[in-house]
Specification:
The complex is a heterodimer of chains A (about 260) and B (about 280). A two-stranded antiparallel sheet of chain A has the order 1-2. Chain A has twelve helices and two strands; from the N terminus they run H-H-H-H-H-H-E-E-H-H-H-H-H-H. Chain A folds into two domains: about 150 residues, no CATH class; about 70 residues, no CATH class. The longest helix of chain A has about 30 residues. In chain A, helix 3 crosses helix 8 and helix 8 runs antiparallel to helix 9. Chain A has about 260 residues and is mainly alpha-helical. With about 280 residues, chain B is of the alpha/beta class. In chain B, the strands form two sheets. In chain B, strands 6-7-8-3-9-10 form a six-stranded mixed β-sheet, with helices on both faces. The radius of gyration of chain B is 20 Å and the shape is globular. The two termini of chain B are about 35 Å apart. The chains are: A mainly alpha (about 260), B alpha/beta (about 280). Chain B: InterPro entries: AAA+_ATPase, ABC_transporter-like_ATP-bd, ABC_transporter-like_CS, ABC_transpr_CbiO/EcfA_su, ECF_ABC_transporter_ATP-bd, EcfA_1, P-loop_NTPase. Chain B: Belongs to the ABC transporter superfamily. Chain B: Its EC number is 3.6.3.-.
Chain lengths: ~260, ~280
């Protein structure tokens, strides 16, 4: 169950978006987050919606995966919509029952903000659904590379990320094993009152922590034995390749931004 | 033996900060080029400490270690690590990369090998340990024996002259252990490497050309497998379990069955037994 939570994200498929350089995808998300705020009327929002859905279509990811990514934030979006409906008191009065009233501007703002939320989440879903975690790590390392000059530990950060990614399944398996071992000793994880169940987590966490520290130490020894001494003088096995499609993607995004600026009111 | 000495230990003593007992006391021996040396001993005999010292993960308080003519110290440590590859006990805790190929490449990346050559070496090494079809597999999809073979590929890729197996097979099932030892044997022959296997498993030590027995931080005995297994009772007292064929030939002898020698491998013993009557 837990494995699905984290690994259900990446959906392998053969699409243009899948084959793109993670850097271009990361840059796209970053730019998109900025230009979403330029939109302020139906025309500009319409453009953004068309762009987003075009990207989803290109990514060839089944729609249900994208929807499942929206579920956890649905409540947040509904909440902001309701807040806007109730609290923005501008424009024409649309509807009134006693003290409760909805104004035109409130409805407009509420819808726009919700659409903005939806679009942002859809776009980031496209990134995580079409890019493996390790590719994202590589992309980040490469994009953050200039920060090395101000002594920001880019390589170490990327290594930390990739090691965590590598150990997630290992720790999951281990948790499973400890859980079974403790169940055999009479600990109940899945029934009983909440308080008891929370208490039952302790005999699960302690061995897990102890083992993780042991693992960390052994891993450090193994890394050192294999000649690891920080990022300096290191070559890279994984290579990112920036292609025509990556440049095209970014040019498209620039055109979109120009259009947004032209059509906004 | 007129072979070239590759590693020399001279009066090496070592003590961990947290302990008052010496982990190693005045140990001296040589390791020769191209041999398979087994270092055996019970837990706490100092054999694992020895592995750490050989790779410069710790430095001895007294005495000196010379690898290929270089005295091991903080300045030469990176150069010696290039010569000595290590395979550790826990298959999971030495797997650094997210996939098989990334892990093999890790050591190469550390040593600044150009990418073109890396690709070549990664493929070659994985081919040699018969893991080439698992290139993009993630560690949790592999068995312990497969992970250890990937670790060996990572070592081979760096083209060391010595490979140290530090209890590398102790967490594996018999099949995984067999796979790993076979792989090491083949690679040793192809690349003319020196193998140092540190183990408490005498079945593994049988494959060695020479065995060092460690006890309480001291070098207890040194000899060929045949010589060492003559010790029988002594070995048991040191907390080591003698291999089954040796045990069986000993019991048979006690029962009055005449065997020409102590047998180390099952095949040899079987061959002796089924021709037994015929010879008589």
């Amino acid at each position: 169950m837990m494995e699905k939570m984290i690994f259900g994200r990446y959906v392998p498929a053969h699409s243009v978006i899948h084959r793109m350089d993670p850097r271009s995808k990361l840059l796209m998300i970053f730019l998109f987050v900025c230009i979403v705020f330029i939109a302020n009327n139906s025309w500009t929002y319409g453009l953004l919606v068309i762009y987003t859905f075009a990207m989803i279509a290109l990514s060839k990811v089944p729609f249900r995966f994208i929807i499942s990514g929206l579920k956890p934030v649905l409540w947040l979006i509904l909440f902001t919509l309701v807040l806007h409906l109730f609290l923005t008191k501008e424009g024409e009065l649309l509807f009134q029952v006693g003290w409760f009233s909805i104004y035109e501007e409130g409805l407009r703002q509420g819808i726009f903000i919700s659409v903005r939320f939806f679009l942002l989440i859809l776009m980031t879903s496209i990134l995580t659904l079409t890019t493996t975690p390790i590719e994202i790590t590589d992309g980040m390392e490469s994009l953050l590379h200039p920060l090395n000059k101000i002594k920001f530990p880019v390589h170490e950060l990327a290594l930390m990320m990739s090691i965590s990614l590598r150990f997630i399944p290992t720790l999951m398996q281990e948790t499973d094993k400890i859980m079974k071992a403790q169940t055999a000793r009479g600990v109940e994880f899945s029934s009983g009152p909440i308080k008891e169940r929370v208490k039952a987590i302790i005999p699960l966490l302690i061995p897990l922590f102890v083992n993780s520290f042991k693992r960390a130490e052994e891993l450090a020894t193994a890394m050192e034995a294999r000649g690891y001494r920080g990022g300096e003088g290191r070559t890279k096995y994984r290579q990112l390749s920036w292609g025509l499609k990556d440049t095209t993607l970014l040019i498209f995004l620039v055109i979109l931004s120009v259009l947004l600026v032209l059509f906004r009111t | 033996m007129s072979k070239k000495q590759l590693v020399q230990l001279e009066n090496v003593s070592f003590q961990y900060d947290s302990e008052d007992r010496f982990a190693l006391k005045n140990v001296s021996f040589d390791i020769y080029e191209g041999e398979w040396l087994a270092i055996v001993g019970h837990n706490g005999s100092g054999k694992s400490t020895l592995a750490k010292l050989l790779n410069g993960l710790q430095f001895p308080q007294e005495g000196s270690i010379t690898v290929n003519g270089m005295t091991l110290n903080e300045e030469t440590v990176w150069e010696t690590r290039r010569l000595i590859g290590m395979v550790f006990q826990n298959p999971d805790n030495q797997f650094v990369g997210t996939t098989v190929q990334d892990d093999v490449a890790f050591g190469l990346e550390n040593n600044g090998i150009p990418r073109e050559e890396m690709l070549e070496r990664v493929n070659y090494s994985l081919e040699k340990v018969k893991m080439a079809q698992f290139l993009d597999q993630e560690p949790h999809q592999l068995s312990g024996g497969q992970k250890q073979r990937v670790a060996i590929a990572g070592v081979i890729a760096l083209r060391p002259s010595i490979i140290i197996l530090d209890e590398s097979t102790s967490m594996l099932d018999p099949r995984g252990r067999e796979e790993v030892l076979e792989t090491v044997k083949e690679l040793k022959d192809i690349h003319k490497m020196t193998v140092i296997s540190i183990t408490h498993d005498l079945e593994e030590a049988v494959r060695a050309d020479r065995i060092l027995v460690m006890n309480k931080g001291e070098l207890y005995r040194e000899g060929s497998p045949e010589e060492i297994f003559q010790m029988e009772e002594e070995l048991v007292q040191l907390g080591l379990d003698i291999p089954f064929p040796v045990k069986l030939s000993k019991t048979l002898k006690e029962q009055g069955v005449f065997l020409s020698k102590h047998f180390l491998s099952e095949e040899e013993l079987v061959a002796e037994l089924w021709t037994f009557h015929y010879k008589k």
